[in-house]
Amino acid sequence: MTARKWDKVATTVLYLISIFIIFVLAFLLLYILISGLPHVSWHFITGRSSSFEAGGGIGVQLFNSIYLLVLAMIISVPLSLGAGIYLSEYAPKNWVTSLIRNAIEVLSSLPSVVVGLFGFLVFSINFKFGFSILSGALALTVFNLPLLTRKVEDSLQAIHYTQREAGYALGLSRWETVIHVVVPAALPGIITGMILGMGRIFGEAAALIYTAGQSSPPLDFSNWNPMYIASPLNPMRSAETLAVHIWKINSEGIIPDATQVSAASSAVLVLFVLLLNLAARYVGNRLYGRLTGVKERK
C-alpha cells in the first residue's frame, strides 16, 4: 500500500474510534437524563431528604454541594494562581522545579479515595475538625489544586514572549508585566480551567465520605450566622453532598423510592456539571473575543 492509502486507512480508523467514543458518552448521558428527569420537580429540588419514607428531596444536599464548592474554590483559587504564576514566570529551570512539577503530576493522578483518607487523617483527626464542611473543603483543595495549578501555568506559558518584552519596553517591572500584561491575556484559559475544576469538585464523592460526612444535621435556614450551630453556613457541621447522597442511596436503599431518587439526583448532578462546562466555554470565548477581537475561539 502507498503512503496515501495508509493515511486514508489511519484517518478512517481514528474517525471510527472518535464516533464510537462519542456514541458511548452520548448514550450514557441520555440514559441518565431520560431515567432521572421525569422524577425531577421543584419539590424534589428544594425539599428535604427522607430516610425511611418515599417522596423526599435533595434541597439540603444540593445546598451543601454548592456551599462546599464555593468554600473549596475560595481556598484553592488564590493558591493555584500563586503557584502557577511562580512556576511559569519566576521558577528557575533546575532539578527543584522539575521535582515540583513531577510532584504536581503525581498529586493530580491520585485516586479521590486516597485524598479522602488523607483528609480524614490530617484534617478530621489531627486538626480535630471532625466530619465537617471545612474538612471537606480542605480535602477538595488537595484534590483539585494540582490540576488548577497546571492549568494556570499552561495558560500563562501559552502567552507569546513578545507580550512580556512589550511590557518591559514600556518600563514595567517584571511583576507589573505579569499582573498587567500576561495574566489578563491568559485570563480566558485560567477562568475556563477554574470553571472546569468546579465541575470536577461538584461531582466528587469519595473524598467527602471521609471528611464532610454522610449525614446533615437539622438546619435552621432562618439564621445564617456562621457561628450558630444549626446555621447552613456553619463550616464545622457535617454535610452530605449530592454525590454522597447518590452513593448512600445506592449502597443502602432503605427508602421505598430509592431507584427514582437516585436517578433524579444523578440527572440533577449531570445537568449542573453540564452547565458548568457550557459556562466555561461561553466565558472563555467571550473573554478571548474581548482581548483579541476574534468572535469565537477554535
TrEMBL record:
NCBIfam families: 3a0107s02c. Residues 62-280 form the ABC transmembrane type-1 domain. It is a multi-pass membrane protein. Gene3D superfamilies: MetI-like (1.10.3720.10). The chain crosses the membrane at residues 12-34, 66-87, 99-123, 129-148, 178-202, 261-280. InterPro entries: MetI-like, MetI-like_sf, Phosphate_PstA. The keyword Nucleotide-binding does not apply. This is Phosphate transport system permease protein PstA. The keyword Transmembrane applies. It is found in: Cell membrane. Belongs to the binding-protein-dependent transport system permease family. CysTW subfamily. Keywords: Cell membrane, Membrane, Transmembrane, Transmembrane helix, Transport. It comes from Lapidilactobacillus mulanensis. It comes from the Bacteria. It holds the Pfam family BPD_transp_1. SUPFAM superfamilies: MetI-like (SSF161098).
